[in-house]
Amino acid sequence: MNGAVGSYIRAASLGSPVAQAHLSEVFGDNFQSPAGWSKMLDHMPGGRVENLMNRKGAWWTRECFQALYVACWIHHPVEKGSYLIQLGPIHQANVRAAYDRLLQSGALQSRISSHLSKQGASAHEGWDFLKGYGELLLQIEGEATFAPYLFLKCEGHALEKGLSLSTVKHLASWVKKGITGSGQTASQALQEWATFSSVVEGRAAENFSKSYEKLLKQLGLSSRRTTVEEAMEALVRKAGFSNGLPNNLKGNTSNLGRAMLGPLGYIEVFKRQRAVLKKTGVDFDEKAEKELTGLAERMSASPTPHAAQHYNEIRVTPAELDLSLATFRGFIP
Prior knowledge:
The protein has helices at 6-13, 17-26, 34-41, 49-53, 62-75, 89-105, 165-180, 188-196, 210-218, 228-238, 253-260, 266-272, 274-279, 286-301, 318-331, and strands at residues 78-86, 109-112, 119-122, 135-141, 149-155, 201-204, 314-316. It is an alpha/beta fold.
Protein backbone atom coordinates (compact mmCIF):
# COMPACT_ATOMS: atom_id res chain seq x y z
CA MET A 1 0.00 0.00 0.00
CA ASN A 2 0.92 3.70 -0.29
CA GLY A 3 3.51 3.15 -3.02
CA ALA A 4 5.28 0.14 -1.51
CA VAL A 5 4.43 -1.93 -4.59
CA GLY A 6 7.39 -0.16 -6.18
CA SER A 7 9.66 -2.60 -4.34
CA TYR A 8 8.30 -5.43 -6.52
CA ILE A 9 9.02 -3.49 -9.70
CA ARG A 10 12.53 -2.68 -8.51
CA ALA A 11 13.26 -6.29 -7.54
CA ALA A 12 12.27 -7.42 -11.03
CA SER A 13 14.44 -4.74 -12.64
CA LEU A 14 17.41 -5.95 -10.55
CA GLY A 15 17.02 -9.45 -11.96
CA SER A 16 14.97 -11.35 -9.39
CA PRO A 17 13.52 -14.28 -11.38
CA VAL A 18 10.61 -14.69 -8.95
CA ALA A 19 9.66 -11.01 -9.21
CA GLN A 20 10.07 -11.03 -12.99
CA ALA A 21 7.83 -14.07 -13.36
CA HIS A 22 5.27 -12.51 -11.04
CA LEU A 23 5.16 -9.21 -12.92
CA SER A 24 4.81 -11.00 -16.26
CA GLU A 25 1.71 -12.80 -14.93
CA VAL A 26 0.02 -9.71 -13.46
CA PHE A 27 0.89 -6.69 -15.62
CA GLY A 28 0.71 -5.82 -19.30
CA ASP A 29 3.78 -5.71 -21.51
CA ASN A 30 4.34 -1.98 -20.99
CA PHE A 31 4.62 -2.43 -17.21
CA GLN A 32 7.40 -5.00 -17.03
CA SER A 33 10.10 -2.40 -16.35
CA PRO A 34 10.41 0.84 -14.36
CA ALA A 35 10.54 2.79 -17.62
CA GLY A 36 7.06 1.60 -18.57
CA TRP A 37 5.56 2.75 -15.28
CA SER A 38 7.31 6.12 -15.55
CA LYS A 39 6.09 6.58 -19.11
CA MET A 40 2.48 6.13 -18.02
CA LEU A 41 2.82 8.45 -15.01
CA ASP A 42 4.45 11.08 -17.23
CA HIS A 43 1.04 11.69 -18.82
CA MET A 44 0.53 13.79 -15.69
CA PRO A 45 2.65 17.00 -15.69
CA GLY A 46 5.69 16.32 -13.55
CA GLY A 47 4.20 12.90 -12.82
CA ARG A 48 1.96 14.46 -10.15
CA VAL A 49 -1.80 14.15 -9.73
CA GLU A 50 -2.22 17.68 -8.36
CA ASN A 51 -0.51 19.10 -11.44
CA LEU A 52 -2.86 17.21 -13.75
CA MET A 53 -5.94 18.23 -11.79
CA ASN A 54 -4.90 21.88 -12.11
CA ARG A 55 -4.42 21.58 -15.88
CA LYS A 56 -7.19 22.91 -18.14
CA GLY A 57 -9.34 20.19 -19.67
CA ALA A 58 -8.32 21.22 -23.19
CA TRP A 59 -4.88 19.69 -22.57
CA TRP A 60 -6.01 16.32 -21.21
CA THR A 61 -5.82 13.09 -23.20
CA ARG A 62 -7.33 9.66 -22.62
CA GLU A 63 -3.95 8.62 -21.25
CA CYS A 64 -4.27 11.24 -18.51
CA PHE A 65 -7.28 9.38 -17.11
CA GLN A 66 -5.42 6.09 -17.49
CA ALA A 67 -2.45 7.52 -15.56
CA LEU A 68 -4.82 8.52 -12.74
CA TYR A 69 -5.99 4.93 -12.39
CA VAL A 70 -2.39 3.68 -12.27
CA ALA A 71 -1.64 6.29 -9.58
CA CYS A 72 -4.64 5.07 -7.57
CA TRP A 73 -3.53 1.45 -7.93
CA ILE A 74 -0.02 2.36 -6.75
CA HIS A 75 -1.58 4.08 -3.74
CA HIS A 76 -3.87 1.15 -2.87
CA PRO A 77 -3.48 -1.96 -5.07
CA VAL A 78 -6.62 -4.06 -5.51
CA GLU A 79 -7.72 -7.13 -7.41
CA LYS A 80 -11.22 -5.68 -7.77
CA GLY A 81 -12.07 -2.20 -6.64
CA SER A 82 -13.35 1.30 -7.19
CA TYR A 83 -11.50 4.55 -6.61
CA LEU A 84 -13.09 7.95 -6.04
CA ILE A 85 -10.72 10.92 -6.26
CA GLN A 86 -12.00 13.98 -4.41
CA LEU A 87 -12.26 17.05 -6.65
CA GLY A 88 -11.95 20.66 -5.56
CA PRO A 89 -13.81 23.34 -7.58
CA ILE A 90 -10.93 23.92 -10.02
CA HIS A 91 -10.31 20.17 -10.32
CA GLN A 92 -13.98 19.54 -11.02
CA ALA A 93 -14.10 22.13 -13.79
CA ASN A 94 -10.97 20.73 -15.44
CA VAL A 95 -12.03 17.08 -15.17
CA ARG A 96 -15.53 17.83 -16.47
CA ALA A 97 -14.15 19.83 -19.42
CA ALA A 98 -11.69 17.04 -20.28
CA TYR A 99 -14.32 14.32 -19.90
CA ASP A 100 -16.85 16.09 -22.14
CA ARG A 101 -14.29 17.06 -24.78
CA LEU A 102 -12.81 13.55 -25.04
CA LEU A 103 -16.30 12.06 -25.27
CA GLN A 104 -17.13 14.43 -28.11
CA SER A 105 -13.91 13.61 -29.95
CA GLY A 106 -14.38 9.86 -29.56
CA ALA A 107 -11.26 9.38 -27.45
CA LEU A 108 -13.64 8.21 -24.71
CA GLN A 109 -16.80 6.23 -25.45
CA SER A 110 -20.05 6.78 -23.56
CA ARG A 111 -21.41 3.65 -21.87
CA ILE A 112 -23.97 2.55 -19.35
CA SER A 113 -22.74 1.31 -15.99
CA SER A 114 -23.91 -0.73 -13.03
CA HIS A 115 -22.16 1.66 -10.64
CA LEU A 116 -23.52 4.69 -8.74
CA SER A 117 -24.99 7.15 -11.29
CA LYS A 118 -25.05 4.33 -13.88
CA GLN A 119 -23.61 6.44 -16.68
CA GLY A 120 -19.96 6.69 -17.55
CA ALA A 121 -17.29 6.57 -20.21
CA SER A 122 -14.85 3.94 -21.38
CA ALA A 123 -11.12 4.67 -21.62
CA HIS A 124 -10.26 1.14 -22.77
CA GLU A 125 -8.46 2.02 -25.99
CA GLY A 126 -4.74 1.41 -25.51
CA TRP A 127 -5.39 0.17 -21.96
CA ASP A 128 -3.03 -2.65 -21.02
CA PHE A 129 -2.25 -2.28 -17.34
CA LEU A 130 -3.50 -5.37 -15.49
CA LYS A 131 -3.70 -8.59 -17.48
CA GLY A 132 -7.29 -9.77 -17.83
CA TYR A 133 -8.67 -6.27 -17.29
CA GLY A 134 -9.46 -4.67 -20.63
CA GLU A 135 -11.81 -1.92 -19.51
CA LEU A 136 -11.28 1.36 -17.66
CA LEU A 137 -14.56 2.92 -16.57
CA LEU A 138 -14.77 6.63 -15.73
CA GLN A 139 -17.64 8.47 -14.05
CA ILE A 140 -18.02 11.90 -12.48
CA GLU A 141 -20.05 11.59 -9.30
CA GLY A 142 -21.49 13.96 -6.71
CA GLU A 143 -21.73 17.12 -8.79
CA ALA A 144 -25.39 17.63 -7.90
CA THR A 145 -24.61 17.51 -4.17
CA PHE A 146 -21.51 19.74 -4.49
CA ALA A 147 -19.25 16.88 -3.40
CA PRO A 148 -17.65 15.88 -6.71
CA TYR A 149 -15.43 12.84 -7.24
CA LEU A 150 -13.85 11.16 -10.23
CA PHE A 151 -14.79 7.48 -10.16
CA LEU A 152 -12.37 4.99 -11.76
CA LYS A 153 -12.82 1.24 -12.02
CA CYS A 154 -10.94 -1.41 -13.97
CA GLU A 155 -13.15 -4.20 -15.34
CA GLY A 156 -12.53 -7.42 -17.16
CA HIS A 157 -14.15 -6.60 -20.48
CA ALA A 158 -15.23 -3.45 -22.24
CA LEU A 159 -18.97 -2.89 -22.70
CA GLU A 160 -19.25 -2.08 -26.40
CA LYS A 161 -22.16 -1.47 -28.73
CA GLY A 162 -23.75 -4.64 -30.06
CA LEU A 163 -23.17 -8.21 -28.93
CA SER A 164 -19.40 -8.36 -29.31
CA LEU A 165 -17.49 -11.09 -27.48
CA SER A 166 -16.21 -8.48 -25.03
CA THR A 167 -19.75 -7.32 -24.27
CA VAL A 168 -21.01 -10.87 -23.79
CA LYS A 169 -18.19 -11.58 -21.30
CA HIS A 170 -18.88 -8.31 -19.49
CA LEU A 171 -22.57 -9.12 -19.17
CA ALA A 172 -21.78 -12.64 -17.93
CA SER A 173 -19.66 -11.16 -15.15
CA TRP A 174 -22.45 -8.68 -14.41
CA VAL A 175 -24.96 -11.51 -14.00
CA LYS A 176 -22.61 -13.42 -11.67
CA LYS A 177 -22.13 -10.29 -9.56
CA GLY A 178 -25.89 -9.88 -9.27
CA ILE A 179 -26.24 -13.45 -8.01
CA THR A 180 -23.19 -13.78 -5.77
CA GLY A 181 -22.18 -10.18 -5.04
CA SER A 182 -18.83 -10.63 -6.78
CA GLY A 183 -17.93 -10.69 -10.48
CA GLN A 184 -15.92 -13.31 -12.29
CA THR A 185 -12.18 -13.64 -11.72
CA ALA A 186 -10.36 -11.72 -14.45
CA SER A 187 -6.81 -12.50 -13.32
CA GLN A 188 -5.98 -15.63 -11.38
CA ALA A 189 -2.46 -14.36 -10.72
CA LEU A 190 -3.73 -11.08 -9.26
CA GLN A 191 -6.31 -12.90 -7.16
CA GLU A 192 -3.59 -15.14 -5.71
CA TRP A 193 -1.39 -12.10 -5.00
CA ALA A 194 -4.25 -10.50 -3.05
CA THR A 195 -4.73 -13.75 -1.12
CA PHE A 196 -1.18 -14.17 0.16
CA SER A 197 0.06 -10.57 0.36
CA SER A 198 -0.91 -7.53 2.41
CA VAL A 199 0.25 -5.34 -0.47
CA VAL A 200 -2.86 -6.02 -2.57
CA GLU A 201 -6.47 -5.95 -1.32
CA GLY A 202 -8.85 -8.48 -2.79
CA ARG A 203 -12.01 -6.39 -3.05
CA ALA A 204 -12.62 -2.72 -2.31
CA ALA A 205 -15.67 -1.58 -4.23
CA GLU A 206 -18.79 0.51 -3.75
CA ASN A 207 -21.20 -2.25 -4.83
CA PHE A 208 -22.68 -4.06 -1.84
CA SER A 209 -22.06 -7.65 -0.79
CA LYS A 210 -25.10 -9.91 -0.41
CA SER A 211 -24.91 -9.85 3.40
CA TYR A 212 -24.76 -6.04 3.51
CA GLU A 213 -27.58 -5.84 0.98
CA LYS A 214 -29.64 -8.05 3.30
CA LEU A 215 -29.01 -5.71 6.25
CA LEU A 216 -30.02 -2.65 4.22
CA LYS A 217 -33.19 -4.36 3.07
CA GLN A 218 -34.12 -5.03 6.71
CA LEU A 219 -33.56 -1.33 7.40
CA GLY A 220 -35.87 -0.38 4.54
CA LEU A 221 -33.01 1.03 2.45
CA SER A 222 -33.18 -0.13 -1.15
CA SER A 223 -31.01 2.35 -3.07
CA ARG A 224 -27.69 1.11 -4.42
CA ARG A 225 -26.35 4.53 -3.45
CA THR A 226 -27.23 4.22 0.24
CA THR A 227 -24.42 5.62 2.39
CA VAL A 228 -22.97 4.18 5.57
CA GLU A 229 -24.29 7.24 7.39
CA GLU A 230 -27.83 6.50 6.21
CA ALA A 231 -27.51 2.86 7.30
CA MET A 232 -26.16 3.89 10.69
CA GLU A 233 -28.91 6.47 11.18
CA ALA A 234 -31.54 3.80 10.53
CA LEU A 235 -29.82 1.28 12.82
CA VAL A 236 -29.49 3.76 15.67
CA ARG A 237 -33.20 4.60 15.51
CA LYS A 238 -34.28 0.95 15.26
CA ALA A 239 -32.04 0.17 18.26
CA GLY A 240 -34.22 2.51 20.32
CA PHE A 241 -32.41 5.86 20.10
CA SER A 242 -34.93 8.25 18.57
CA ASN A 243 -32.52 11.18 18.28
CA GLY A 244 -30.43 9.34 15.70
CA LEU A 245 -26.82 10.24 15.00
CA PRO A 246 -25.35 13.40 16.54
CA ASN A 247 -24.51 16.20 14.11
CA ASN A 248 -20.74 15.88 14.55
CA LEU A 249 -20.87 12.42 12.94
CA LYS A 250 -22.85 13.54 9.90
CA GLY A 251 -20.97 14.36 6.72
CA ASN A 252 -17.69 13.21 8.27
CA THR A 253 -16.68 9.63 7.53
CA SER A 254 -13.65 9.70 9.81
CA ASN A 255 -15.67 10.73 12.87
CA LEU A 256 -18.41 8.24 12.06
CA GLY A 257 -15.94 5.40 11.58
CA ARG A 258 -14.26 6.05 14.92
CA ALA A 259 -17.63 6.31 16.67
CA MET A 260 -18.60 2.88 15.36
CA LEU A 261 -15.54 1.13 16.84
CA GLY A 262 -14.33 0.33 20.36
CA PRO A 263 -15.99 -0.94 23.54
CA LEU A 264 -18.29 2.10 23.66
CA GLY A 265 -18.87 2.32 19.92
CA TYR A 266 -22.12 1.89 18.03
CA ILE A 267 -21.32 -1.64 16.88
CA GLU A 268 -21.07 -2.78 20.51
CA VAL A 269 -24.33 -0.97 21.24
CA PHE A 270 -26.05 -2.82 18.39
CA LYS A 271 -24.75 -6.12 19.76
CA ARG A 272 -26.24 -5.33 23.17
CA GLN A 273 -29.47 -4.24 21.51
CA ARG A 274 -29.86 -7.32 19.32
CA ALA A 275 -33.19 -8.26 20.92
CA VAL A 276 -34.56 -4.77 20.36
CA LEU A 277 -33.36 -4.76 16.76
CA LYS A 278 -34.86 -8.22 16.21
CA LYS A 279 -38.30 -6.88 17.18
CA THR A 280 -38.00 -4.23 14.47
CA GLY A 281 -37.10 -6.82 11.83
CA VAL A 282 -33.32 -6.36 11.89
CA ASP A 283 -31.14 -9.42 12.43
CA PHE A 284 -27.88 -7.94 13.69
CA ASP A 285 -25.84 -11.14 13.36
CA GLU A 286 -22.10 -11.78 13.09
CA LYS A 287 -22.15 -11.04 9.36
CA ALA A 288 -23.72 -7.63 9.94
CA GLU A 289 -21.21 -6.92 12.70
CA LYS A 290 -18.31 -7.90 10.43
CA GLU A 291 -19.60 -5.72 7.59
CA LEU A 292 -19.93 -2.63 9.77
CA THR A 293 -16.56 -3.22 11.43
CA GLY A 294 -14.82 -3.38 8.06
CA LEU A 295 -16.52 -0.20 6.89
CA ALA A 296 -15.68 1.61 10.13
CA GLU A 297 -12.04 0.59 9.91
CA ARG A 298 -11.79 1.81 6.30
CA MET A 299 -13.39 5.16 7.09
CA SER A 300 -11.43 5.79 10.28
CA ALA A 301 -8.13 4.86 8.58
CA SER A 302 -8.54 7.54 5.91
CA PRO A 303 -6.31 10.56 6.60
CA THR A 304 -9.00 12.79 5.06
CA PRO A 305 -12.65 12.90 6.17
CA HIS A 306 -15.16 12.53 3.36
CA ALA A 307 -18.79 13.58 3.23
CA ALA A 308 -19.99 10.06 2.43
CA GLN A 309 -18.99 6.43 2.01
CA HIS A 310 -21.21 4.03 0.09
CA TYR A 311 -19.47 0.76 0.91
CA ASN A 312 -15.83 -0.30 0.55
CA GLU A 313 -14.75 2.04 -2.24
CA ILE A 314 -11.39 3.75 -1.83
CA ARG A 315 -11.83 7.51 -1.44
CA VAL A 316 -8.66 9.50 -1.83
CA THR A 317 -7.39 13.03 -2.42
CA PRO A 318 -4.88 14.15 -5.08
CA ALA A 319 -2.42 15.07 -2.32
CA GLU A 320 -2.60 11.57 -0.83
CA LEU A 321 -1.96 10.04 -4.25
CA ASP A 322 1.09 12.25 -4.73
CA LEU A 323 2.52 11.15 -1.37
CA SER A 324 2.21 7.51 -2.44
CA LEU A 325 3.78 8.31 -5.81
CA ALA A 326 6.74 9.90 -4.00
CA THR A 327 7.22 6.64 -2.06
CA PHE A 328 6.88 4.66 -5.28
CA ARG A 329 9.58 6.77 -6.94
CA GLY A 330 11.89 5.94 -4.07
CA PHE A 331 11.97 2.48 -5.65
CA ILE A 332 11.41 3.61 -9.26
CA PRO A 333 13.44 6.78 -9.93
